[in-house]
Design brief:
Layout: E1 4-5, E2 7-9, E3 12-14, E4 19-24, E5 27-36, H1 40-57, H2 62-78, H3 80-91, H4 95-116, E6 122-125, E7 131-139, E8 142-146, H5 154-165, E9 169-173, H6 179-190, E10 199-201, H7 206-215, E11 221-225, H8 228-241, E12 244-248, E13 253-257, H9 263-275, E14 285-291, H10 295-307, H11 327-342, E15 346-349, E16 353-354, E17 362-363, E18 366-369, E19 386-392, H12 395-402, E20 410-414, H13 418-427, E21 432-435, E22 455-456, H14 466-469, E23 470-478
Parallel strand pairs: 1-5, 8-9, 8-11, 9-10, 11-12, 13-14, 13-20, 14-19, 18-19, 20-21
Antiparallel strand pairs: 2-3, 4-5, 6-7, 7-23, 12-22, 15-18, 16-17
Helix pairs in contact: 1-7, 2-4, 3-4, 3-6, 4-5, 9-10
This protein binds NADP nicotinamide-adenine-dinucleotide phosphate.
Length: 479
């Protein structure tokens, strides 16, 4: 058996009920390691440890917090190649994408190290003479953090770093599919000087420990990223117990291509945002909305560019796209290609499983035409390398189609018109809008999040993260 990895509870590495193998989706014979499964009793131990640690951590000096977060960020950045390789091996992103994600995680910790020192309040005069009013921000308490498999180190980083920066304690449950990066991150945090119990890692299935984490009375708030189905359930559970919660969920992100777009640029950014990272980004473009004048050239351009894509082992040099992360996800991706064809759409490129030297979950990216906004392929999140094209008459029809979705995470437009770019930025019903850029690919120091069915609660990242991870107090002082 490869190295065993345990839960981190109250500063101790604790074995759970069993170990499960972490399998490489590029090569299912390659087991990266074995990771323990926490029991519900251990989840309770982790929450109790975090509660006990909160009294001290919440009043610890901001210098101590800043130093710890800076140390974590420095180590992640120094080990970005190793961590990025681990990420590629367990999740299937290409190695350069994995290294980029690890660097992002390191930079996020560095950013929030600085934010520890910048948490400001307000002082106002009272409407009643002789009284002063202070508005301050305080830590929330113990935060339950639940993350998905598609960004195994960046998403944990962008929740854990602000939680700790603002004086909260954490119980972290990563996705069961990708425990490797989560464990490596926890190991780095465990050596950062943060007191025992402030940060706890519990690994295992959502149904076994995710559910009791959400409902645990010792948890003050839940920060969740994942599917809409699980997010909806968590919302109901948190509402019942009046916990604060924040949900980042799925997307069905539109990329509009207008007649006046630069064709080569429009093709490149569409291929990038639809298919890179195997289409497994919540901000991936899955609906390409194309006006009539450029439609034939755009479809031909996409087919030509897609024919050049190299799909293979995530750790192989020169690969553009790695495997799908799991067999279940691959089956879902292939299933949606069939659903689209069954609804009358046309598969014009890819869409089939690929064989490579090693046994893995490889798929040729799929491009689907002759679709309408009512089809399931344009309404439901696939979360794989599958993009559909909608042909529309003009900009107004494109905008209407872009907003014709229950989701609202990210939206893009390719155009050389300042008028249309400006109008789209204003009228897109998405949390993030891109002009002449892929819908995926965002900075770490500015807010991240969506609207409608994609998100609920305050934004993540940047200084806006304080909205979720702190609570406001208003104090009055008589002179
Ligand atoms: P998921 O199935 O919803 O799982 C997300 C997390 O929730 C996992 O840790 C999962 O544990 C846990 N979980 C499952 N059931 C639970 C329960 N009953 N109570 C508490 N936790 C539970 O999502 P996924 O398949 O990992 O990730 C893909 C989804 O994430 C896509 O919809 C994608 O769009 C979304 N996503 C959104 C963003 C964003 O910022 N908007 C970013 C990335 C991904 P297990 O792994 O053990 O099941």
């Amino acid at each position: 058996m490869t190295q065993e990895h345990n839960n981190l509870i109250n500063g101790e590495w604790v074995a759970g009920t069993a170990y499960t193998p972490n399998i490489n989706p590029s090569n299912t014979a390659d087991v990266q390691g074995h990771y323990t499964q926490a029991s519900a009793a251990q989840l309770d131990d982790a929450v109790q440890a975090a509660r006990a640690a909160f009294a001290g951590w919440s009043v610890s000096g901001i210098q101590a917090r800043a130093d710890a977060l800076d140390k974590i960020g420095t180590e992640i950045l120094a080990r970005r190649e190793e961590l990025g390789t681990l990420l590629a091996r367990e999740e299937g992103k290409t190695q350069p994408e994995g290294i980029g994600e690890a660097a992002r995680a390191g930079n996020i910790f560095k950013f929030f190290a600085g934010e520890c020192l910048r948490l400001a309040g307000e002082t106002l005069p009272s409407v009643r003479p002789g009284i002063g009013v202070e508005i301050t921000r305080e830590p929330l308490g113990v935060i339950g953090i639940i993350t998905p498999w598609n960004f195994p180190i960046a998403i944990p980083a962008w929740k854990i770093a602000p939680a700790l920066a603002y004086g909260n304690c954490v119980v972290f449950k990563p996705a069961d599919l990708v425990p490797g990066c989560a464990w490596a991150l926890a190991e780095i945090i465990s050596r950062s000087g943060i007191p025992a119990g402030v940060f706890n890692l519990v690994m295992g299935r959502g149904s076994v420990i995710g559910d009791p984490l959400v409902t645990h009375p010792g948890i003050d708030a839940i920060s969740f990223t994942g599917s809409q189905a699980v997010g909806n359930r968590i919302a109901l559970q948190c509402a019942t117990s009046l916990k604060k919660f924040q949900l980042e969920m799925g997307g069905k992100n539109p990329q509009v291509i207008l007649d006046d777009a630069n064709l080569a640029q429009a093709v490149e950014l569409s291929v990038q945002s639809a298919f890179f990272s195997t289409g497994q980004r919540c901000t991936a473009s899955s609906r390409l909305i194309v006006t009539e004048g450029i439609y034939p050239q755009f479809v031909e351009g996409m087919k030509a560019r897609m024919a050049t894509l190299k799909i293979g082992d995530a750790l192989e040099a020169g690969i553009d796209i790695g495997p799908v992360a799991s067999l279940a996800q691959l089956e879902q991706d292939l299933g949606y290609v069939g659903i689209a064809q069954g609804e009358g759409a046309t598969l014009v490129a890819g869409g089939e499983r690929l064989q490579r030297a090693s046994e893995g979950f490889y798929m040729q990216p799929a491009l689907i035409t002759d679709t309408t906004g009512a089809m399931r392929i344009n309404r439901e999140e696939v979360f794989g390398p599958v993009a559909s094209i909608l042909r529309v008459k003009d900009y107004d029809a494109a905008l209407a189609e872009a907003n014709n979705t229950p989701f609202g995470l990210s939206a893009g437009i390719a155009t050389s018109s300042l008028k249309y770019a400006t109008h789209f930025k204003r009228h897109s019903q998405a949390g993030m809008v891109m002009v002449n850029l892929p819908t995926a690919g965002v900075d770490y120091h500015v807010p991240f999040g969506g609207r409608k069915g994609s998100s609920y609660g305050p934004r993540e990242q940047g200084r806006y993260a304080q909205e979720f991870f702190t609570v406001v107090k208003t104090s009055y002082t008589g002179m």
